[in-house]
Every structure is written in C-alpha cells, then in structure tokens.
Amino acid sequence: YTGKSSTQLLSASIRKFQVKDFQSIPSVINEDISVYDAICAMFLEDVGTLFVINKNSELVGVCSRKDLLRASMGGQDIHSVPVHIIMSRMPNISVVTPDDLLIYAANLLIEKQIDSLPVVRKKGSSYEVTGRITKTTITRAFVALIEDE
Ligand code: ADP
C-alpha cells in the first residue's frame, strides 16, 4: 500500500497529461482572406477559432466567432475587409508547445478567458502552428481520467 490518497493519485495522473497526447488538428487560414471567407471556413471546418498565418506559414493571429460577429456588425463590407484587420494579433497570442503539461494549457484557457490555444513549434523568431487545444480537449482529458482508472 502506497499510502497515497485517491486525490494524490488523481493529481499525479493529471500531471502526466501532455499537450501532445491530446492536441487536435488546427484550422488555419491565410491573413489575406476576407472576413466573409473566414466565416465560411469556420462553418466548413466546424471550429470556433481559426488560426491565422502569413504567406510564410508563420502564426500572425487568431480569429474567434465573436471577432467575426463584431466585424459583421460594423457596417463594413465583409467581402473586402481582410481577416488580419479584425483578428487578435501577435505578440498578444497565447500559445503552447507539445511538451507543455495539459494542466498548464487548461490554466491558460481560464486565465485568458479564451476557448482555444494554438500548439506551436518555434521557427526562427516566429511560430509554426502544428495543433490546437480547446475546451473540448480538456473535457476529453477529464473523461479519460475516469476511463483509464
Ligand atoms: P469568442 O470571442 O468567440 O468568445 P474566445 O473567447 O476564444 O472566443 O476569444 C475571445 C477573444 O480572445 C477574441 O477576440 C479572440 O480573438 C481572442 N483569442 C482567442 N484565442 C486567443 C489566444 N490563444 N491568444 C490570444 N487571444 C485569443
């Protein structure tokens, strides 16, 4: 008998979860596409957040559902406004790496009050997007805790 309480065992298993074990495939758009095309991409890919890259495939921003709603309500022509005008941009983007702990990612989602995080790989002074972590990811990990018992 190890003498460990069930709470200690549970927290030990949570601490073993890493971003790379739970990340999903990211939906990425180019910064030059229109707000209208970003809305189409969001519907087609069935995601709540799109990661925005430039022509060198570097992460430049994040575009959420409400970013697109706000842009659509502004009275501008959503067919001509490019998405880089309305997105949240670097360096103010929260990111995680594959080796980060999932609990670190979960804390970032709560602290920053956001729904998703790009999983990135460093590429010189910029980032390449390789995955995504969302609130759904955290729900899946929560369920896995019980199923792996
Ligand atoms: P929504 O805006 O649809 O509620 P979020 O809560 O994820 O979706 O986004 C809130 C705001 O934070 C948006 O303006 C969005 O661009 C921005 N945002 C989303 N994810 C990130 C991130 N990983 N880093 C920085 N800002 C983000």
From TrEMBL:
Keywords of the record: CBS domain, Lactose metabolism, Repeat, Transcription, Transcription regulation
This chain's protein is named Transcriptional regulator
Positions the record marks as coiled coil are none
State whether keyword Coiled coil applies: no
Q: Lineage in the entry?
A: Bacteria, Bacillati, Bacillota, Bacilli, Bacillales
* First and last residues shown, out of full length: 62 to 210 of 210
Select a single GO molecular function from the record's annotations and give it.
DNA-binding transcription factor activity
Return one Gene Ontology term, BP aspect.
lactose metabolic process
**Record domain CBS: where:** 22-78, 87-149
